[in-house]
Design a protein that fits this description.
heterotrimer; A alpha+beta; B mainly alpha; C alpha/beta; B: mainly alpha; 9 helices; flat; C: alpha/beta; Rossmann fold; 6-stranded mixed beta sheet; 4-stranded antiparallel beta sheet; 10 strands; 31% helix; binds adenosine-5'-diphosphate; binds magnesium ion; FtsX-like permease family protein (chain A)
């Protein structure tokens, strides 16, 4: 055992020295390696961060949402449903919600208009999210005009903006009071967008949800756990898509690694020959080459990951902004909560270090089994 | 559910492992067929050099399998939110009938790979490579094993369906699907503890004995394999409940989580290493019959038995510590 | 020292690129005994097979046919892995072009052959420094080898060959690029080593070498066969 460690210590020592002697040679590969880890880790940290954010939002979202479905489409829920649900055992509180989307043609952006249940907004006033405030350069006290669906121009005073802590959800929000909302959209007075319910005992969410479904046959009942699962699956699916897209890059990297490991310079070839001639065994040479790969991988992985960490958590994934902006004009300025988890690290490891190692086995073996008498020729 | 980064990583790896073992076996086959130590021909030298490629490939496959086993379990735990009724990895593994078979195949593959590498290590100490034929015949057995493991894993992941909302139905998922996570076999505390300490004691005794008399590895290997299963059963039945301080929570995987101080690693690491060494001590010792290994093989067996004994002590210590530190009491 | 046989070659042949169009019979049916503790010189024109024979004697290559016995043990069919181990313990090599690893210091180069054995680092360093001072090179210990002069490089190569304390030292054309003074210096070192009980096997077509007083045996090769022994 002691000999095992001592031998590897010597071999690592030699490897470090030989990497030092050939700093330039591995630089190109190293840069590509770092870049690949950086991109994969950025995507992964970003998805994970967004998922956490979504989870946090869901934690505070209602346990049960009741919608009405007509012909497979959402339809406003009659206000009577609130009373019907309140009557069900185990239900603690029920509330009808009013919200909808508004398309700002001038800015080509979608806003979410909403009546806040817990925050009174004066008639004729709106509270807007940070994204809208930036987009339209609005501040408290400014006047804003929205065009109602029937063509009327409605004028609102900005009475406040939402803080940026939860900007991922609030960037595109416009809060207004119930009367304004119904008048603006011409929303029937006896309807809500949907109804939310909370449950006394969290373990009974499922039971209560099925009771609601029984009581209101045309309703679609969605629990928080359902949403959570759906989000999870959605994020994983997106991550999977990105991985598929990036697999081309991984493949290119593998080919580069193979090529680099196979294309030994005459000098390196001679060096291996010398080592073998002076008494190194094939497995010693293989070990040195593996250590070389391990050190390069470790450094590249660390560098790529640290860069990605900084990119995602300190620069809010700035390099992805153009890509994400394609999805929404109101790109949220959020700060994700830094978090690293083992699964992500291992997954990226399997997409980078493992292919690298596999790609280099064969070339390493070829190099290590050259005849020991080559140097005598 | 194949579009998931970790699942894709695991599937890619298993494909790579199949390819790696297949290449190793193909080279092994040429070695098996043409090996002729008496010949000084260039061909024999080529074959000798191929042995390095094969053992390097196998070592990489082994380490990849270790990492992939870990990631597989970790991922199963992380996926639990997507299945109704699943609380942790057990639920995810039960979400499809191939879940547990895939896990067991992965574990079996790990042990097979260790045995192969240990036989290989023994062979490399005999100057005439006395085990070449045995070794490469064994390698051919590993091919179906790695293919099976990859196949089961694929079947598992492709069969998984997250219980997600679809835009057009009012399907409710929160129906009672109790028992999805509850079908792991469960022993009562007392017999489980007897099984645990009895099994550990027996293997410990046998490995110390093997250390003194390597012949006994023939007994140690099968006992160690059986005790591995016994220890896993009692971990599920009782040790885990001590960790969680909940008599109903039987899960061998949550032990790996930070909430429980990663105690699972302290438990499984020595258990897997000890079992792997104890199991491979026998094939290695078997080869003392080759003249060139008459000394080396028993020496290897002894050192393996020694390390295995230390591992079993560690497992026992960790279990005892878990039980002593727990807030759960079955016996007063 | 008795004149016993250390290495014995029986009908040794070596064919390069066997079975290919560029096949070369470099060494043909050589019977040769190398005496323990003596200096043997393989002599012959360029291309006569000296180097090839040296690689077979030094376990760097296996003979295509015939037997090689080291200390009575047949090593001709041994796998490379074990041949390497034997070579490492038994032979030290001084190559024709020295083949020091560039970018590393003289001291590191000297320590290199011992790495796989992994002796205690301090001990190894001490041993390498001792060898350097024996060869009057201690002041060059930390010099990168590409800065060494020809003679210094050769002495570094000799020190590297000796670091594992092998009983046999093999040198291929040791004086090929040396002037008279340096050749004399090399012969002096060889004599010291012989006095220490080492067996030396050299190749050379340089009369200064094979006519030197300390040389015990000269084997002349021509076209891969032994032409004459002395
Ligand atoms: N690796 C090799 N491949 C092919 N031919 C070789 C090789 N090494 C030596 N030879 C040939 O074998 C013959 C003997 O060469 P060598 O042993 O180097 O002779 P010397 O050292 O006496 O000059 C020469 O014809 C040479 O061209
Ligand atoms: Mg020559």
């Amino acid at each position: 055992m002691n000999h095992f460690f001592a031998r590897h210590l010597y071999l690592v020592d030699f490897t470090v020295a030989s990497l030092g002697r050939r700093r330039g040679r591995n630089l190109g590969l190293f840069a590509v390696y770092v870049l690949l880890v950086f991109v994969l880790a950025s995507v992964s940290l970003m998805t994970h961060g967004l998922r956490r954010e979504a989870q946090a939002i869901l934690e505070s979202s209602p346990e049960i949402v009741v919608q009405r479905m007509i012909a497979g489409r959402n339809d406003p829920v009659p206000t009577g449903a609130v009373a019907a649900i309140t009557g069900i055992r185990g239900v603690r509180a029920v509330q009808g919600r009013l919200w909808g989307y508004y398309y700002d043609a001038g800015m080509r952006a979608n806003y979410t208009l909403m009546v806040p249940p817990d925050r009174p907004v004066e008639s004729g006033a709106v509270v807007i999210g940070g994204g809208i405030a930036r987009l339209r350069q609005l501040d408290t006290g400014d006047i804003v005009h929205f065009m109602a669906p029937d063509g009327r121009i409605v004028r609102f005073t900005v009475s406040g903006t939402l803080d940026s802590a939860s900007e991922l959800v609030s960037a595109d929000l416009v809060l207004m009071n119930e009367g304004d909302f119904r008048a603006f959209f011409g929303f029937p007075a006896d309807r809500f967008t949907d109804v939310v319910a909370s449950v006394r005992n969290p373990r009974e969410v499922g039971t209560v949800a099925s009771k609601i479904a029984l009581a209101l046959p045309e309703a679609r009942v969605v629990t928080r756990a359902d949403m959570l699962r759906t989000y999870e699956a959605l994020f994983d699916w997106r991550g999977g898509m990105v991985a598929v897209v990036l697999s081309g890059a991984v493949l290119a990297f593998v080919i580069l690694a193979w090529d680099k490991a196979a294309g030994l310079s005459a000098d390196e070839r001679r060096e291996i020959g010398v080592l073998k001639a002076i008494g190194w065994e094939t497995s010693d040479v293989i070990a040195v080459k593996f250590w070389e790969g391990a050190l390069v991988s470790l450094l590249a992985f660390l560098a790529g990951y640290v860069l990605a960490y900084g990119h995602v958590f300190y620069f809010s994934g700035a390099l992805f902004e153009p890509a994400l902006k394609g999805w929404a004009i109101l790109y949220p300025r959020f700060r994700l909560v830094p978090e690293i988890n083992g699964q992500q690290v291992a997954t990226i490891f399997f997409f980078t270090v493992v292919p690298y190692t596999l790609a280099t086995i064969f070339p390493i073996w070829r190099a290590a089994t050259i005849d020991p008498d080559t140097v005598m020729r | 559910m194949l579009f998931h980064p970790t699942i894709m990583a695991l599937l890619l790896w298993s494909a790579a492992a199949v390819a790696g073992v297949a290449v190793a076996a193909a080279y092994g086959w040429t070695i098996l067929m043409e090996w002729n130590p008496a010949s000084g021909s260039a061909r024999q030298l080529v074959l000798e050099r191929r042995t390095y490629l094969v053992s390097t490939l196998m070592a990489v496959v082994l380490w990849g399998e270790v990492l992939s086993l870990w990631l597989f379990v970790y991922n199963a735990d992380a996926m639990a939110v997507m299945f109704v009724g699943a609380m942790c990895a057990v639920g995810s593994l039960n979400a499809d009938p191939y879940g547990f078979p895939a896990l067991i195949a992965k574990i079996a593959l790990f042990f097979l790979a260790v045995v192969w590498l240990q036989v290989n290590r023994a062979d490399n100490q005999g100057w005439d490579y006395p085990l070449v034929r045995v070794k490469y015949a064994l390698l051919l057995i590993l091919v179906p094993a790695v293919v099976l493991s990859a196949g089961l894993q694929y079947a598992y992941f492709s069969g998984l369906r997250a219980d997600v909302l679809t835009s057009c139905c009012s399907k409710l998922f929160e129906v009672d699907r109790e028992g999805v996570g509850a079908d792991m076999s469960s022993l009562a505390p007392m017999p489980a503890l007897v099984l645990l300490y009895g099994g550990l004691g027996l293997t410990l005794l046998l490995s110390v004995w093997t250390w003194r008399r390597p012949v006994l590895s023939a007994a140690l290997a099968p006992v160690a394999a059986a005790v591995f299963v016994a220890v896993m059963v009692s971990v599920v039945s009782v040790v885990s409940t001590y960790v969680y301080a909940q008599p109903q929570h039987h899960c061998p995987f949550c032990l790996l989580k930070p909430e429980y101080g990663y105690v699972g690693y302290a438990l499984y690491l020595p258990l897997f290493v000890g079992t792997a060494l104890a199991v491979s001590s026998w094939p290695v010792h078997h080869f003392r019959r080759a003249a060139s290994l008459a000394q080396a093989a028993p020496a290897m067996t002894r050192s393996m038995a020694w390390v295995a004994a230390a591992c079993y002590v560690a497992v026992a210590v960790v279990c005892t510590w878990i039980i002593a530190a727990s807030e759960l009491y079955y016996f007063r | 020292m008795t004149d016993t046989v250390l290495i014995s070659l029986k009908k040794v042949s070596k064919i390069h690129n066997e079975g290919r169009p560029n096949e070369v019979q470099a060494v043909v049916g050589i019977d040769l005994d190398i005496a323990r503790g003596k200096v043997t010189v393989l002599r012959g024109a360029s291309g006569s097979g000296k180097t090839t024979l040296l690689t077979v004697i030094g376990c760097l290559a296996r003979p295509s046919s015939g037997r090689v016995a080291l200390d009575g043990r047949d090593i001709s069919g041994m796998p490379e892995r074990f041949l390497t181990r034997i070579r490492q313990e038994t032979f030290g090599f001084v190559f024709q072009g020295f083949n020091l690893l560039r970018g590393m210091s003289a001291l590191d180069n000297i320590m290199l052959p011992a790495y796989p054995q992994a002796p205690p680092h301090r001990w190894l360093r001490r041993r390498a420094l001792d060898l350097l001072s024996m060869l009057r090179l201690e002041h060059r210990a930390d010099t990168p080898v590409e800065m060494l002069s020809g003679g210094e490089a050769q002495r570094t190569a000799i020190a590297r060959a000796l670091v594992n304390d092998p009983p046999i030292l093999i040198a291929d054309e040791p004086t090929a690029n040396l002037d008279t003074a340096l050749t004399r210096e090399f012969l002096g070192i060889a004599e010291t080593l012989k006095a220490q009980g080492k067996t030396l096997i050299l190749t050379s077509h340089d009369p200064r070498v094979f006519e030197a007083g300390m040389v015990d045996h000269v084997v002349t090769l021509r076209d891969g066969r032994v032409e004459e022994r002395r």
